[in-house]
Amino acid sequence: MSLIDALTRAHPALEVLPASAATAPYAYDAGTRRTPVEHGPVVAFPATAAEVAAVVRTAADLGVSVVPRGAGTGLSGGASAGADQLVVSTERLTRIVEISPADELAVVEPGVINADLNTALAPYGLFYAPDPASYAISTLGGNIATNAGGLRCAKYGVTRESVLALDVVLPDGALVHVGHRSIKGVTGLDLVSLFVGSEGVLGIVVGATLRLRPLPVARRTLTAFFDSTGEGARALGAITASRVRPAVVEFLDEPTLRDIDAHSGSDLRRRGASLALVELDGFGIDEQTAELITALTAAGGRVAVVPDGEAPLLWELRRSGRGLGQGAPTWYVGEDIAVPRSALPAVFDYFPVLEARYGVRVSAVAHAGDGNLHPLLKLPIPPGLEGTPAPPALGAAATDLVAFALSRGGTVSGEHGIGTVKLDWAALELDDRVQRLSHAIKDAVDPDDVLNPGKALPAPVLQPA
């Protein structure tokens, strides 16, 4: 019996699209969209947790591997799928099941859009802290799968710090609940943390109990412009050394400011050669502001408080102003490295070395409050070579930068995940024993490799017989 026949016979109310050109958009995510396909996978659209469990059970019985998918906004190929696989989309699971102001938590289905949850929470004076750049279009299930971060991580942490409990469909179709509604709880192994960030290789999240925070009584945006990228990167340490803990600390280097101005018509580069963009929140905001202005001014910054009406534009320029993929044809590689905050200046200082060594152009924006950078490595595409593979120098430069970050105590991915795109880089970070342990956990939970095979976990080196 074919997969389509089995699914429609067992679940007649379930919408299933057969593998065809119409399902091609489900073959890739935002990180792999540059390599489109003509023929997509089978796609199922369950509307309840029970339907997800039934679909996974049917696929497992037929030996068909399953790729979980949220909104497809991931940047590492974690939701890419072959024509012989089944994509289980969570886009119909969009209920906010509960909002409990007394417990400061919400229970949601995985297809809820990050921004939509905060819209629903605002009347209660609460908010959900993790805010990836794609917050307006990414789903909470996808955020959980990659342990997404965002701008507010500097103060509030990544997704893992805001997840109390999960409902998960396992590879055999069993539905389990892990975690608790209480803030504290240490019974058993921490399976919530195991599933958060596991990129769908262990289970499909069908429900989440999320920790909420009170909306700050005040928010304020500050800019600090510097005369060079290096000066600005070194000045970031003054924030850490102060007694202020901003909600957001973003750093934009000189080429990033130029890119934003070219794409968005702004004038950031005229005001300085690098920018620290800071958001303060909470009580005592005047005192926080005064201390931070003193610290950044002493470090060489030209500091200004941004009028409330202008702040949203600056934050939007930070999130989407670079215009990636627009303008002159360009080969590019984006990265998601993270390093200890003290190593940020060294990483920015290394960019000119890469440019001289490989002939590439390197820029980066950084969640400087937690040391997470998003470098962009570019090479212009000569006329007539559009659509051809990038020259090896681009990949070599990207790997060189990853190795440099690792040498400074960093990591391959701060928040985007490994997916398929970063498997080779992950192998540089994880030693063979750790890789084997990771695969042992995968094999114990998913012995038949049903869920998202070939993702997230680099293959360990085989030992001779």
Report what the structure shows:
The chain has 465 residues and is an alpha+beta fold. It has 4 domains: 3-89, Uridine Diphospho-n-acetylenolpyruvylglucosamine Reductase, domain 2, CATH 3.30.43; 96-214, Uridine Diphospho-n-acetylenolpyruvylglucosamine Reductase, domain 3 (2-Layer Sandwich), CATH 3.30.465.10; 219-320, Alpha-Beta Plaits (2-Layer Sandwich); 330-424, 2-Layer Sandwich (Alpha-Beta Plaits). The chain is built from 15 helices and 18 strands. The protein has helices at 3-10, 49-62, 114-121, 140-146, 153-156, 191-195, 229-241, 254-264, 268-271, 285-298, 311-320, 344-358, 392-407, 423-429, 432-445, and strands at 15-17, 42-45, 66-69, 86-89, 96-100, 105-108, 126-127, 163-169, 175-179, 204-211, 213-214, 219-226, 248-252, 274-281, 302-306, 330-334, 361-367, 372-380. It has a 7-stranded antiparallel beta sheet with strand order 15-12-14-13-17-18-16, with helices on both faces. Helix 7 crosses helix 10, helix 7 (229-241) runs antiparallel to helix 12 (344-358) and helix 12 packs antiparallel against helix 13 (392-407). The chain is globular and about 70 Å long. The mean pLDDT is 95.
